[in-house]
Amino acid sequence: MPHPTATRPPEKAPQKGPAPGRRARRPFPSTHRTVLSPYQLNTRWGRRAYWAVLTFIVMLFTAVFVFPFYWMVTGAMKTGEEFAQIPPTYTPPRFTLENYVEAWNLMNLDRFLGNTLFYAFGAWAFALAFDVAAAYALSKLRPFFGNVILLMMLATLMIPPTVLLLPMYLTVKDVPIVNLDLLNTPWAIWLPAVANGFNIFLLKRFFDSVPADLLEAAQLDGASALRILWSVILPVSRPILGVVSIFTVVNVWRDFVWPLLVLQEQDKMTISVGITSLSANTPQNVLVAALVIASLPTIIVFFIFQRHIMVGLTAGGLKG
Q1: Higher local confidence (pLDDT), 134 or 308
Q2: Residue 170: alpha-carbon gap to chain centroid
Q3: Per the CB 3.0–4.6 Å rule, which of 62, 172, 188, 274 could disulfide with 112?
């Protein structure tokens, strides 16, 4: 006969519950890894603290980036004595545009701005035409040794620009095969702007992400490779075209060393080289006014193209 305790089921250990009168705590979800939990952000003081910190950080960074431009704009409104005053004043005694008018007339800024606009527009047009074609060929047409060609283009980005100044100058001075001298011509600015491996790489990476369904649908309709580029690829590529446009125009506008080497005639100088050549006998406040005028076009170009930068590729393709 078995022992009575052999068939008795094991007793369960008593579970400890919450103390009488106390509410059980719910474990905090481990998915939230922020400083403030969603519960704390939903409280009144949590929302106030969040918006206060966010507003302070945004205003601080805005002041850091905007203050140099503000200093230029207000400094150009001061007289020579006020501009050289120590400690400096943060606001001019009176707001006037006399120094801007004097800088415009004294330094021939209309001619320099016209030259730079011409060079920038030409570089932008040629860069988009040739870089888009090269990126489209490498991305969709897949030529023989395409990856090797792209690798060689990217290898040029590893070379410091200063090292390339002498070979580029000799090439522009005497173009191989055709033996042309391109000094003091717009081609000396346009050709180096077109040969930009970084822009081609950006465009190729963007073209690689274009949905294949769009291209297949166009091919079924009988579209050629050129028609696909014009009617399918370019309409959905506005974000990257805006980025490349900004890079090209800004690089031509702010460049100083290369235009100084290849554009030595004063009536063909860019705005940066022209202001520098006339800065020796120009008052400081008038010179700062000229610098403000020279920086305005690039700011306008950015505001024109900045809305295209963050546009989604798929959304733009499906909506069209």
Answers
A1: 134
A2: 31
A3: 274
